[in-house]
Write a structure and sequence with these properties.
By secondary structure, the protein is mainly beta. Helices cover 0% and strands 35% of the residues. Strands 1-2 form a two-stranded antiparallel ribbon. It is extended, with a radius of gyration of 14 Å. The relative contact order is 0.19.
Length: 60
């Protein structure tokens, strides 16, 4: 089952893709045909636990 389409960059070839995301988070690169699991976007507030910033944020 396909979920939605999002722009992402392949970690293998570095090219930009706009392909459907599977329900389990896997995508297939249109150029090198690698199947990889994409990471949540930090800009959208979707950080996974392994991606959370290790440095404390500064309060001004």
């Amino acid at each position: 089952m396909k979920d939605d389409v999002r722009n992402w960059h392949c970690r293998n070839c570095g090219r930009s893709n706009s392909t459907p995301i599977e329900a389990d988070g896997k995508v297939k690169c249109d150029f090198c045909h690698w199947v990889v699991r994409i990471q949540p976007s930090r800009e959208r507030g979707g950080e996974a636990s392994g991606q959370i910033a290790r440095r404390p944020t500064r309060i001004a």
